[in-house]
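Changelog-linked ticket: protoporphyrin IX containing FE example.
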Amino acid sequence: QEGDATAGATVFKKCATCHVAESDTNKVGPSLNKLFGRTAGTHPDFAYSAAMKAAGEGGLVWDEATLRDYLHNPKAKVKGTKMAFAGVKDDQEITNLIAYLKQYSQ
Ligand code: HEM
């Protein structure tokens, strides 16, 4: 099933209290602009948890597969993350969210 970026914009409302995608601004969470290909825990000027920095040092890079895993269950993928979010259970919602985020990753 293809991702629907417009539907993904609606899903992103779950993220938008803490994240922006369309610009480089950090909020409670790091900017998700140009996320794909980013090593975890490396956006400048954001105070990540030790766990997220260690995940990046261990080789975690954000792509479709790693993002899908993380968004299903953030605390299982990165034990000790300070992202206070339970995750997105619906796989199609994650597919749409990825299509949305890719628009801001060119
Ligand atoms: C980290 C995505 C919801 C707060 C991250 C990262 C991603 C992400 C990909 C890692 C970024 C990086 O390594 O630079 C999302 C998505 C969400 C969501 C797609 C919605 C589905 C939230 C919410 C909050 C939040 C609701 C606040 C309550 C944070 C924080 C971090 C983070 C504080 C840094 C984690 C750490 O250093 O351990 N998020 N997030 N996120 N997010 Fe979210």
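Closing comment: Example verified and attached. The mean pLDDT is 97. The pocket of protoporphyrin IX containing FE is lined by residues 14-15, 17-19, 28-30, 32, 35, 38, 40-41, 43, 48-49, 51-52, 62, 71, 81-85, 88, 97 (CB under 6 Å).
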